[in-house]
Automatic annotation (TrEMBL):
It comes from Streptomyces lienomycini. This is Probable membrane transporter protein. Coiled coil: none annotated. The keyword Metal-binding does not apply. Keywords: Cell membrane, Membrane, Transmembrane, Transmembrane helix.
Length: 247
């Protein structure tokens, strides 16, 4: 299979995951860029931010058309993560690639296990400003450092901390991760990282289309089924990346 075909296929899978679940797209993007398309870990995490921004914007439009976005809650949550995202994005360029790969494998495993859980996040009916700020800051730091959107963290946090209804949490999380990714990418603008646009642009195109289709897929397939499938994929990715880092 040629690199171009691999880029098209991997982009579509990442986009569908993001559009359907509001999560998982960028966690699939980074290993796909590294192991299928030959990007370095530093280049992959930077390119992933570009993919997160475009696919999140695409999926956000679809969710917004159905009224499934809580703009005020999303903007407040995102604001808390902007400075941590910028700081972590600048720090990431100074971290050894082996460390980035190991940390990313651990994050993929956590995300996979989270998706395999059937329980919905609990709401206590109260909204704590301190908890919201802490959760938003943590999400921003993860986005900036590892180049992931962090939707698997944002969705339950929006439900439990900001009392966003589950039906609107996915769409609102897209707003949050897009804002964090924009800031993190700006923080990396000064780093000398080469991005192979001949492979990144086809990946990006099919990811954007996949995000749009993922939204429609979510309306037809059980959310539990989708989460189990993508959770299993993420665990497999985590094991493969962890084994590679050790060897």
């Amino acid at each position: 299979m040629t690199p171009l075909i691999l880029a098209l296929f991997a982009g579509a899978v990442a986009g569908v995951s993001l559009g359907a679940l509001g999560a998982g797209g960028s966690i699939l993007t980074v290993p796909a860029l590294i192991y299928l398309l030959g990007f370095t870990p530093a280049a992959a995490t930077t390119a992933s931010l570009v993919v997160v921004i475009v696919t999140s914007a695409t999926a956000l439009v679809s969710h917004a058309r159905t009224g499934a976005v809580r703009w005020r809650a999303g903007l407040l949550f995102a604001a808390a993560g902007l400075l941590p995202a910028a700081a972590a994005g600048a720090l990431s360029a100074r971290v050894p690639e082996a460390v980035l790969t190991t940390l990313f494998a651990a994050l993929a495993a956590v995300a996979g296990l989270h998706m395999l859980r059937r329980r919905a996040p609990r709401r206590d009916g109260t909204v704590s400003g301190a908890r919201a700020a802490g959760a938003g800051a943590g999400l921003g730091a993860v986005t900036g450092f590892l180049g992931v959107g962090g939707g698997f963290l944002a969705v339950p946090a929006l439900v439990a901390v900001l009392a966003v209804p589950m039906g609107a949490a996915v769409g609102t999380s897209l707003l949050v991760v897009m804002a964090n990714a924009l800031v993190a990418l700006a923080a990396r603008a000064h780093t000398a990282v080469h991005l192979d646009l001949a492979l990144l642009l086809p990946f990006l195109a099919t990811a954007a289309l996949g995000a749009w289709d993922g939204r429609r897929l979510a309306a037809k397939v059980s959310a539990v089924t989708l989460r189990r499938v993508f959770g299993g994929v993420l665990l497999a990715v985590a094991v493969a990346m962890g084994a590679t880092a050790v060897l």
